[in-house]
Each structure stands twice: as structure tokens, then as C-alpha cells.
């Protein structure tokens, strides 16, 4: 279970903050000057994720050796914690004591989140921006007492935690949800009919699952899949089934409801703006993606030549998508669909162990460091995977990264770990 340590001077509101995080009031004793608390762990949860909060206690401000007291507290936090919450009083601003503590914490290379507590209103919140000067990155203004900003803070803590517990089987073990999308006439109904038409039995129900009546349960590659929102495809009450606007909304909601999308393109026609819009919807929704070039039976050598050029040009931004050349009409390569869906979903749910991720990252930044800009080069300190479906990564850095370098990191990350068929998300958390 990951550990979050709370560090800060007495009276900045650490106890109140801990209470806010663990969701209990008055559970933690207030700082009493002259009384040094031992570190006390509390169980907490956020978004279904369990973690431990350690209140590191306060140091006695008038102690003979204040520096030693600060050091001891910071050390406790650093040794035990995965993430350190450094709490300052937003109404007071940073003090020399705070700065001394920051020095200790910075040596640790542990992620430190700067909490500007007592930001009870917008005015104090604005003033909290001056705390950037502490060199810990963005301050999180919070009112531990009233709860203001605590949700954002908890989100930030979750993103910084090293590794989610393996509750992989959390997802109800029903059929995987697939969106079969594409502009009109690319062959969606034809493909659906291959799976659910007369030739094959439609699966009506799967034990223990409820399926939306607009969805179809079909067997593809020996497995049952839930094709979401296929009602319009099955009925085929004429071609005019609504405006393009309405169709686009439907496509978007099908993608949203799905885990993986099959975007059908018509290989006999140029890749259009509408095709691009649908692809963008999938990428932006963060769904796994298989691009099926349908009507492949119509592709001759000549068309093939131009199509390859179009693919280079139009699909350059999504080189990771899995591509299939099939024909709903002849049945060509239709059996490749299920393996492609499985592969894309596996990538989508990949979790890279933190140790492996950071070994790879260390080697990468050593071989190719960030280019120097204005005499300085931001360093990537370490990375964690903040989530799956799709995989999301957080890079902890000493400063913002060049867009080009960030793309380089993403490309290398894919080279190392694959993620074929899945978008990935990388965010950067600069610490100063
Ligand atoms: P939808 O609007 O995307 O559902 O497209 P349909 O399934 O209605 O197909 C549109 C037209 O393309 C129909 O005339 C189909 O017969 C034809 N079609 C679909 N798939 C193929 C294919 O693989 N090859 C060829 N040659 N025609 C196809």
C-alpha cells in the first residue's frame, strides 16, 4: 500500500489536512507546541484506491536544534513515503523554516506536492501562487478546514503514487465492448451481418450481464463481444437515418461506451475529413483502436499505390493503430478482427512495473538528455504509470520539457513497451 507523508511546520494545519484526507473529523490530535508526535499512519481511500497517510508530527519551533528537528521529520517522510505532501500556510507564505525543509526534501528525489493550506477564499488562493518560489512546482491551494481544493489535491496525489494496486479483475467479466464505427456506406452493416446475420447465430444473452437493447452480442473468433449501439445498423430503415450531425453524436456516444473501436474505412475511396473526425474521436476518448480497410476486394494495384500514399499522409499521427485489410463482402481477413481486438485491448490495459519503467527511463535520458535551452536543461527525475485503459504516465521533471523531447520520450516508450493499438497519455509534472 502506497504511503503519503505529510510534512510541515506546526500550525500549518497538517492534522486538519490529514483529517480531510482520511474523511474523519477530529481524529487526529492537533499540533501542541512542545509536544512532538510520533509519526502516525492512517488508512485513506480516494477513487477506489487505498493508501496510507503518515502524519509526521510537528517539530518544536523553539527547540535548541531546530535544524535537526526539521531534518528528522523530513527524513522520516522521505524514508517511509512514496509521495510527500509539504504543507505551508498560505496566509503566512513561505518562511525560512519552510525553505530549510524544502532543501532536505529536494535531496530525496521523492515526489513532493506543495500544499498551500488555509486558502479559504480566492484572494488567499491567488496569493498562494507566490509559493512557486519554493521550487516545488505548482502549489495546490487547499482549505483543509472547509474542503476547498481537496479533491484536486487528492487527484494530484493519486497521479503521483507509484503504482496502483492490482485490482485488475475489478471490471465485470462480461463481453468486451466494441464500437463499430465509420461514415455511411463504408460497410458497417455488412460487417455486422457477417457476424450476426443468417450464417451465424446471434448470441442473445450472457449469464450475469445485462446488455443494452441497442447493442448486439455477437460471436467473433470464438468469443462473445458486445457491439455497442448497433440498433441503427440492424434495422436499416432506409439510408436516411438522420442528419450527419445526429449520426456523429451517435458515433461519439458509441465510442464513449466502448473499450475498443473498429473504425471502418472504405479502401476504394480517399480517406476523408469525416473519416479523420471519427479517428480523432477515438483517440480523444482514449479508446483502443483498430482501423479496418473494408472493401479490400475492390483494391487493385493502382488503387493500392495511392492508398499507401494516403495512409502515410493521413494516418501519420496514429502509427500505433492496428490496421487490417478486409472485405465484409468476400469475408477476406475477417478472421483477423478478433485477434486484433484482443491485442489492442491488451495494450490498452498494460501496466508497466515502476522499476522496469524507471530503468528504461534512466538509460534513455542518459543516452539522449534533454537539449540545453538558455543554459539549462530540464531533467526527468522519474516516471510512474498513473493508470491504465489507456496507459497514462506521469514524468516528474525539474522543469517543463520541450514538446519535441516529449514526443521523443513517447516514441521511445512505445518502442520499448509496445502499446500497439492503444493511445497512451504522458503528462509532465515539473518540480521547479
Ligand atoms: P454502412 O452504411 O457502413 O452500414 O454500409 P453498408 O454495410 O450498408 O454497405 C454499403 C455498401 O457497400 C453496400 O452496397 C455493401 O454491399 C457494400 N459493401 C460493404 N462491404 C463491402 C466489401 O467488403 N466489398 C465491396 N465490394 N462492397 C462492400
UniProtKB/TrEMBL annotation:
Binding site for GTP 2: 182-189, 229-233, 294-297
InterPro entries cross-referenced by the UniProt entry: AAA+_ATPase, G_ENGA, GTP-bd, GTPase_Der, KH_dom-like, KH_dom-like_a/b, P-loop_NTPase, Small_GTP-bd
Key words, A-Z: GTP-binding, Nucleotide-binding, Repeat, Ribosome biogenesis
Subunit (UniProt): Associates with the 50S ribosomal subunit.
GO molecular function: GTP binding; ribosome binding
Start and end residues of each EngA-type G domain: 2-165, 176-349
Organism: Micromonospora robiginosa
PROSITE patterns: G_ENGA
Family per similarity comment: Belongs to the TRAFAC class TrmE-Era-EngA-EngB-Septin-like GTPase superfamily. EngA (Der) GTPase family.
A biological process from GO: ribosome biogenesis
Protein name: GTPase Der
Cited function: GTPase that plays an essential role in the late steps of ribosome biogenesis.
Binding site for GTP 1: 8-15, 55-59, 117-120
Gene3D superfamilies: 3.30.300.20, P-loop containing nucleotide triphosphate hydrolases
Superkingdom per UniProt: Bacteria
Transmembrane segments: none
